[in-house]
Amino acid sequence: MPEFQYKAREMSGQQVTGVLTATTEKEALATLAAQQLFPLNINLAESSIAAAKQVNRRVPSKHLAVFYSQLADLLKSGVPLLRSLELLSRQSTHSALKVVVSDVRDQVAEGSRLYDAMKAHPKAFTLLMVSMVRAGEEGGFLEDVLKRIATFTEQQEELKGRVVGAMVYPVFLLVVGAAVVTVMLVWLVPKFDGMFEDMAARGALPWATTALMSMSEWAQNYWTVGLLGAAIVIAGLLQWLKTEDGRRKLDAFRLKAFGVGRIVRSLAISRFCRVLGTLLQNGVPVLTSIQIAKDATANVILTDAIEIAASNISEGKSLAGPLGSSQQFPEEIVEMIAVGEEANNLENVLINISENLERRTGREIEMAVRLLEPILLLFLAAIVLFVVIALLLPILQSSGMV
Questions:
Q1: How many CB atoms lie within 10 A of CB 162?
Q2: What are the two backbone dihedrals, phi and then psi, of residue 7, each rounded to the nearest 5 degrees?
Q3: How confident is the model at residue 52, as a pLDDT?
Q4: 15-21 β-sheet, strand order
Q5: What predicted TM-score, i.e. pTM, was given to this entire model?
Q6: Are 42 and 6 in contact (CB under 8 A)?
Q7: Contact 38, 8 (CB under 8 A)
Q8: d(CA 189, CA 136)
Q9: 190: which DSSP letter?
Q10: What is the pLDDT of residues 103-121, one digit of tens each?
Q11: C-beta separation of 60 from 69 below 8 A
Q12: What is the pLDDT of residues 30-62, one digit of tens each?
């Protein structure tokens, strides 16, 4: 429990200082009032601030998935919640998870509900997880909820791993290509300056060689200016993207970008459907579920469309209608949602939509990466070929071969 340092006055007017233990600042003020002390200043003690920073740490999803699964198994086997949390805290090999679970255990021991204790760690437990745990606690099916959370987390990690893994080789090609071009411009091309000096004076250098020598000279003399300019542009762009207008335009561009827009849209809708379906399966009210699930898209444009749909549901309308009117959701998905609503089986339909989208998107990502690899190789080969031709042309020209 956190400690608070206070400075207060007694009824006699004498100033006193001290430290007291309380759950919240409001509780600390009530304690001082009960002691007939008038608070002048109250703050968290340094030890509690350090402990709060230590506790509020981010935990990787793969470790959380194991935690959810193990906690579900222990509870299903009849092990009490407090003992289960204590056991998992001791056995955890991840330092951040160990600290977080230990704090959750302490809060539960003091009388807090599990979901309230988890809510105090937003960097470790998302709003989705907290809402599902709350539904499980209130509905008496906490073990099943934890199993579903573990499965959901593992599926999201697997999908993220597939996307990241697919992009490793293309990114490697880009880095290698940039390094090769830089070495050529800075180290290789300048060695030919003396050879081409006479031809350059006569104006007899081919245009390709002239362009290459100019790029090399710029790279040698102004590389610091180039790096500084790039850094300023990137910093300005990142700042702009933090604004509401910047994020909205970026999200709109991502949805319409040639070649990747369809993949981005499918992944966002897949996350929304899986989160919404999982929440509905666990007894979370539909409006609350939609308010939580809309943020899973990580796209402002889609989130706004879902927000409008949620307001229509509160007026007694269906979910499929406004989603279709937004023109942000594919027609076949809207039709499947409509059928699920009519059959009163929306949660299972949403899970099926998510699984189908993930499979289809996985294939599209794999195909796109396969196409991207030869394109990058051809691009890199074209750059190297241009450099070679630009260096050989003057030599061939002076020897009379061209």
A1: 15
A2: -130, 125
A3: 47
A4: 15-21, 3-9, 38-44
A5: 0.64
A6: yes
A7: yes
A8: 68
A9: G
A10: 888 888 888 889 888 888 8
A11: no
A12: 887 887 787 777 776 655 444 444 456 678 888
Say how many C-beta atoms besides its own lie within 10 A of residue 134's C-beta. Answer: 22
CA quadruple 371, 376, 377, 383: dihedral positive or negative?
positive
3-state SS class at 281: helix
Instruction: State the helix-helix crossing angle for 261-281 and 286-293, rounded to 10 degrees.
Output: 150
Between CA 55 and CA 104 the distance in angstroms is 10
Q: Using CA atoms in the order 290, 295, 299, 302, what is the torsion angle rounded to 10 degrees?
A: 10
User: What are residue 8's DSSP bridge partners?
Assistant: 16, 39
The answer to whether the CB of 133 falls within 8 A of the CB of 118 is yes
Task: Provide the sign of the torsion angle of the four alpha carbons 155, 161, 163, 166, taken in this order.
Answer: negative
- CB under 8 Å to 233, separation ≥6 — which residues? none
Q: How far is CA 32 from CA 23, 46, 253, in A?
A: 14, 20, 56
Return the CA Rg of the chain: 30
The reported pLDDT for the residue numbered 2 is: 61
Highest mean pLDDT among 186-195, 270-279, 313-322: 270-279
